[in-house]
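quick one, two chains, predict together pls
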Amino acid sequence: MEEHVHHVEHPDMYDPESSKIGMWLFIFTELLLFGGLFLVYSVYRYMNPDAFHMAAVELNTTIGAFNTVILLVSSMTIAMSTSALQKGQKNLTIGLVVITFLIGIGFLVNKWFEWGVKFDHGIWPGSEHMIENMSQGEILFFGLYFVMTGLHALHIIVGLVVMGFAIRGVANGKVNPDRPSMLENAGLYWHLVDLIWIFLFPLFYLIT
Amino acid sequence: MHTTSAVNGANYLAYQGKYKGLLGWILSTDHKRIGLLYLYSIATMFSIGVLLGLAMKFELLAPGKTIMDAQTYNATFTVHGVIMIFMVVVPGLPAVFGNLMMPIMIGAKDVAFPKLNLLSWYLYVAGVVLVISALIFGNGTPDTGWTFYAPYSFKTGTNLLPAIFGAFVLGFSSILTGLNFLVTIHRLRCPGMKWTKLPLFVWTLYGTAWIQLLATPVVGITLVLVALERLFGVGIFDPALGGDPILYQHLFWIYSHPAVYIMILPAMGAISEIIPTFSQKHIFGYKAIIASTLSIAFVGYLVWGHHMYTAGMSGTAQYYFSLLTFIVAIPSAIKVFNWISTMYKGSINIQTPFYWAVSFIFVFMVGGLSGLVLGALATDIYVHDTAFVVAHFHYIVFGGTGFAFFAAMHYWFPKIYGRMYDKSWANIGWLVFTIGFLALYSPMFYLGMMGMPRRYYDYLPEFHGGNILSTFGSWIMVTGFVIILTNLIRSAKKGEPAEMNPWKSKTLEWTVTSPPPVLNFEIEPVLGEKDGPYNYE
């Protein structure tokens, strides 16, 4: 009887289509969240073209490019994990998500060093060095740089947490070929994180 | 098997699940229970907001300091605004009646993501706690106004950070509710419930959900930027560091203008349920109402600049924003004509919800037409930042959303609680409330035209008369509110048992028992060709 009462309270409403629509809608909100920042970026770039040019030179294109490549690879591995799950290859699925997870960590480590170098040069939001030595446009550039890459890094961390749950789900069988939504949504989210970086990279590192 | 039917037959209020007492509510994923959680939280916040408004009106009873100084007055209107906007009218109808009724109206057992639904309520409560903590801790209550305009929002010494963060969390709650409703309406309609048979309240929730989803993130990131500005001084909105405070206003209103449609669309939806029910007639222009709902949702995105005519904007931009503002008024007018045409030659059954709905149309029209005065460039310069704006805003948001909320409350009350309220007290409450409302806000139109600025605790002696009337009005209105509240609370416990369909309505929620069973329907409903939400004989 206990079982039955439980059942009445939570009717099983699993519907892969609903999960997918829900995730896409959530992705729209994320795009608009970053959209606000891209809007601010374009306004200030338009107002301070020279300063944005000068400031962008200071960013390390090599680390940026390396991070772009590994993030693209990680998007591939998580897409492969979804296919592996469909084929019922449980261990391969877990392996591929773990690889994606590790690449995400690697991205954050690179970011850590990149930001660290900036801090060593006295560049952080509100630092005296910036206020004394930089033009207003450059201050804005670095302000946006830290806010946008910071918010992106936060999304990487959220993505890692979601992947953690996906790994556990696949391992204990709750995420399986019949109920793949959790992993698929983790993949969709990770692609979003990747996609935003694809825009951040040229805007900050390449357009100098 | 015997237990099964007993459990299925139990109504959602009496149902005893895995948890008892309070836990049975705050851990329940039943959309109806979550709707009631929202109702009680929002009613509590509304009452606090009303008390703050009452205090402001009392301050304005006489020129000079009456009960509070300028700083306290600034803090009071800030907190009044934050509570009323982010905690009452934005979640208002969707979170309460959307949750309580929408799944039943489309013939579903629950929303698409019941756990996410409960999470939305938790986020709502977390947002409320954060904002309240800003009032209690730190160096003084926020005093920026609910708009958090830069650069003052990062220059003020008051404890703004928790309030901003709270507003962000409340926005997140709103986004998740919108997402949940969109998926629910797309996926969980019962067989035969085609898009053209969807009750109009559901349609307006659908349009609202899109706005919640696509506009809220923009204000989310804007509030994050203000918080970062306060914490680190990134410079994005700080003119001293090259930032542009007007950009803040643009980003803020890109959300906050569509947000007024989050407030008003579901209100229009509820009215579109009530008018045909009590006219006992098919709604006039069903498809026109849907089209106007969707076009309001869409055009509403593009009019934010009309909040900023005097803030510094190119003449060309002003013309476009003004033109679009006039265009967005058209679909609202279409709805008004449709409601009135629905009543024409109907067999009108005058009951409390109908009184509320008709008075809604009146105050909404006054609010809407005065909005055109503000939407036109030349007249806006004259009345900008005066009491006229406050009057217009309260006619629309309080007169619109608030009246529709009370209309919906009196309409669905017998379904929600399975009991009927005392109708004569409900009518008296409506009358007193409406008289108070008109006395409270109408003088503000006049005061604004005469040049009384808003957001001051003091005013010139010549504005005394209008302010006395307005303050008296606030007392009458609160008396009405107390009558309404007392009647509803008493009736929820002791009212006469209600029938299944006391208003002879045609939508699905009236085909189940009052209060509805836990899973809404014993058998999944199927809509035939001739069935429909407004098919009256």
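Residues 1-9 of chain A have pLDDT under 50 and may be disordered.
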